[in-house]
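Teaching assistant's notes for section 4

Start the section by putting this record on the projector. Ask students to predict, before seeing the second block, whether VWA domain-containing protein will look compact or extended. Collect guesses on the board.
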Amino acid sequence: MFTSFFYTMKSNGLDISTTEWLTLMEALDKGLANSSFTDFYYLCRTIFVKNEGDYDKLDAAFLEYFKNIKEDKINMDKINQWLHNGSDLEAKMTNPELFQDTRTKKEAKEVHRMFRERLAEQHTEHNGGKYWIGTGGGSFFGKNGRNSGGIQLGDKAGMKTAFAVMGERRYKDFRRDKKLTMRQFQVALRELRQYSRKLDLPKTELDIDGTIDSTCNRGGYLKLEFEQPRKNTVKLMLLFDSGGSMYPYSEMCNELFQAVHKANHFKDVKTFYFHNCIYAKLYKTPECVSGDWIDTTWAFKNYDKEYKVIIVGDAGMAEEEYLDKNGNYSGPNNGLSGHEWMQLFKKKYPHCVWLNPSFHGDLSKMYWMKSENMIKEIVDMYPLSVDGLKRAIKKLMLDR
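Reveal the predicted structure now:
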């Protein structure tokens, strides 16, 4: 049963085992879905979703597989116009459980039936009155009316069908293969705080664990314990590929830049720019203006090898540009190819990762992307996604 649905979920990235699939079949056999499509959706979510990153994958699978199922859908765009509200509205159908103090459950269900009946009959907006869906008035349905126990339109949605939940795709931001946002950058970068170490300073910071142990050992008599303060010693260097094919990713790069510079858990942060590949100059601004730069060799001398380096770029350039000593079209290269500069850079900064917003998994058939493959051989490259950044940070932590 639903074998093709199993493969649809798999194709959308859900890691489903045979045991989990059989669990769903057993649950259906026992009638746990209650012959309800919405209950079936939540049953699948209970069984198959293992972390927050799976929510959107399940929603996408449902939309793909069950897209032809007829649904009893409320046209909220039409109602939105009637209610003169420029924001996106959703129907908040009051839960029958909430009618306890003013109406019985039976009466509440009757109000729901009447609402759908009015919606089928009504073709224009209505304000005031006691019958139609509209604003004000004494009708059971609408906005800013004066009839308690009816159906309020607006605010947050209440009793939704499964399709309504999936149609929103509210969990897209939790996907781990999704391109990153400012918030996700900030969360991932916090993991670099683990590089902090104890300093040779007086013990002035309260040691909670030590205090608990000492107090317990003294039969409950409080004994405060202190330890040396911790200070983060992480030094971070950010390098952004700017211009050309990176223009579509400029907003994402700006979010990473902002996330890093708003963080207060780095000892030092240096930010530079390049075009396509690192050469003899590192630019100070994303415009990569000639002369507004520092020598890459100067950086080698003044920024020690303890800097953790994150390079952001699509690694997209012609093979001859990457390999030829005259292949740099945006500035001097001091007689070295991009490939040689990358080797020198990695030798100087061993704690180095590359985040690629257009990461390609299999480049065997993409001869025009050989530069990406060759850079991967020098620097560990990851997709610029939630999972990619987490793996990159983990690599930097293992390299310490």
